[in-house]
UniProtKB/TrEMBL annotation:
Domain Fe2OG dioxygenase, first and last residues per copy: 110-212
Top-rank taxon, per record: Bacteria
Co-factor(s): L-ascorbate
Keywords from the named record: Dioxygenase, Iron, Metal-binding, Oxidoreductase, Vitamin C
Lineage summary: Bacteria, Pseudomonadati, Pseudomonadota, Gammaproteobacteria, Alteromonadales
Entries under Pfam families matching the protein: 2OG-FeII_Oxy_3 (PF13640)
Protein name: 2OG-Fe(II) oxygenase
InterPro entries: HIF_prolyl_hydroxylases, Oxoglu/Fe-dep_dioxygenase_dom, Pro_4_hyd_alph, Pro_4_hyd_alph_FE2OG_OXY
Length: 224
């Protein structure tokens, strides 16, 4: 009998999930980001895709931005449609379950103190985009780790729609990521500017953010 106590794991987290979590943790620790192909189990991709497909146009609303620069209009910065995930759908529930296990793994491995998670489905019709932005601003300390995954059935280079992750404000080449089904991208929200290039097809993604607890006397976290 081992004397080492092992934290109980949710029954539907497999050893391949644990291997994916470990790759995300080491990527975040060593580089501040991780790009893992085929990260999501097929079953999770399937239920997420189903839940996404059941959304109607009316379920999506315009994505917001944290801080506007100058007099730019939001729709000049991003024009995707988003629908927040609340666990009411099978896909949403399975995704929140999986990311909860990832949250616990990152907290155990990296002592990150990740407290909560918020996430939405996003739809980028052909030609739509999200210009270079940060997901969080230094000192505002809420979004700590960004996650993005893709629900497209297939994707090739000719379809465009890359997520480009820049190492810093001076990196002009960036790291282009094709939004292939099951690919998961994770990065430190305050560290990496990134953008979504226009695609030639409808592009479906799920974005999410692990947050710190920023509750105070008059503001209660999480906000939703
Ligand atoms: O869909 C993507 O690849 C990234 C989306 C994004 O950057 C965001 O929603 O903040
Ligand atoms: Fe972003």
């Amino acid at each position: 009998m081992s004397a080492i106590a092992v934290a109980p794991q949710s029954a539907d987290i497999s050893s391949s999930d644990t291997a994916v979590f470990a790759r995300i943790a080491s990527g975040l620790r060593e580089n501040g980001y991780a790009i893992v192909e085929n990260a999501l189990p097929e079953s999770l991709q399937t239920v997420l895709r189903l839940s996404q497909a059941q959304l109607s146009q009316a379920d999506y609303h315009m994505g917001g931005i944290g801080r506007q620069s100058g007099f730019q209009r939001i729709e000049d910065i991003r024009n995707d449609g988003v629908c927040w995930i609340d666990g009411a759908t099978g896909g949403g529930k399975a995704w929140l379950n999986w990311t909860e296990s990832l949250r616990q793994h990152l907290n155990r491995q990296l002592f990150m103190g990740l407290f909560s998670f918020e996430s939405h489905f996003a739809h980028y019709p052909p030609g739509h985009f999200y210009k270079t932005h940060y997901d969080a601003f230094r000192g505002q300390g809420n979004r700590v780790v960004s996650l993005v995954t893709y629900l497209n059935e297939s994707w090739s280079e000719a379809d465009g729609g890359e997520l480009v992750v820049y190492r810093d404000d001076n990196d002009t080449a960036g790291i282009p990521v094709l939004p292939k089904p099951g690919t998961l991208v994770a990065f430190l929200s305050e560290e990496f500017p990134h953008e979504v290039l226009p695609a030639r097809r409808d592009r479906y993604s799920v974005a999410g953010w692990f947050r710190m607890n920023t509750s105070s006397a008059d503001v209660v976290d999480p906000p939703r």
